[in-house]
Design brief:
Blueprint lengths: L4 H13 L14 H14 L4 E11 L5 E12 L2 E6 L2 E5 L3 E6 L4 E6 L9 H4 L8 E11 L2 E10 L6 E9 L5 E8 L4 E10 L20 E4 L2
Parallel strand pairs: 6-12
Antiparallel strand pairs: 1-2, 1-11, 2-3, 3-4, 4-5, 5-6, 7-8, 8-9, 9-10, 10-11
């Protein structure tokens, strides 16, 4: 059931962050204090030349029961990224995307179309919020000696399958450490950063799927 949990999560985040709707006046306005936090997050992330992080991805049902948990890593450099999780990897060199399914021994190849509004991991850490959500600053929380600023986002487009997104931002580092998505059907998706390094040297070929290293893999070219 959770073989493609990474794909599910990215599908949900695409639904979350690709709205580009205009907020009706009846919905009210966003909290300017929340915007200050989000703007600081975006500005800080843009200063990183590279990012290498480990994360946990979890899905819960309406009763709060954990349905699946996966651990993975993500690397980013400019517009390039690579996401690795049990059974699956996604490579992007800024032009091409390779989605590798280890069990099926196949890789799907597609072109990255920046004009289509497609989501990338980089966009999840920057200014995705301006056109798609109303947002408010909730009370801070403390965990393991750290203080987190909590932002609650409400989608402007009410036809989306989710009704709320909660971000937890490390108050000191100004980095989003967790994202929780609440679907209308009761499911909840949690993406949490465990560790993050921003000075790691990452070679460009790390973001390219090298078929020579994966003998016997079927290539499905969707370009």
């Amino acid at each position: 059931m959770f073989k493609r949990l990474l794909s599910v999560f990215f599908s949900i985040t695409v639904a979350c962050f690709c709205t580009h709707a205009q907020a009706p006046k009846s919905m009210g306005k966003s909290d300017p204090e929340a915007k200050k936090v989000l703007d600081a997050v975006s500005a800080k992330f843009k200063t990183f030349k590279t990012v290498k992080a480990s994360f946990a991805l979890k899905i819960e049902n309406a009763a709060g029961k954990v349905q699946g948990t996966k651990a993975g890593t993500i690397m980013m450099k400019g517009i390039k990224y690579r996401v690795s999780i049990t059974g699956q990897e996604i490579f992007c060199d800024g032009t091409t995307i390779w989605t590798y399914d280890m069990a099926a021994k196949e890789v799907q190849v597609s072109a990255l179309d920046n004009s289509s509004g497609a989501i990338t991991p980089q966009k999840l850490f920057t200014n995705f919020y301006d056109k798609d959500f109303l947002y408010m600053l909730n009370p801070e929380v403390k965990k393991a000696g750290k203080t987190y600023q909590v932002i609650e986002l409400t989608p402007i487009d009410k036809t989306k399958p989710f009704f709320k997104v909660i971000l937890e931002v490390d108050k000191l580092t100004k980095v989003i450490m967790s994202t929780r998505i609440f679907e209308k059907n009761g499911n909840r998706y949690l993406y949490a950063i465990n560790t993050m390094a921003t000075t790691t040297v990452i070679p460009d070929d790390s973001f390219v799927f090298n078929l020579k290293k994966y003998p016997g893999v079927e290539v499905i070219d969707l370009r």
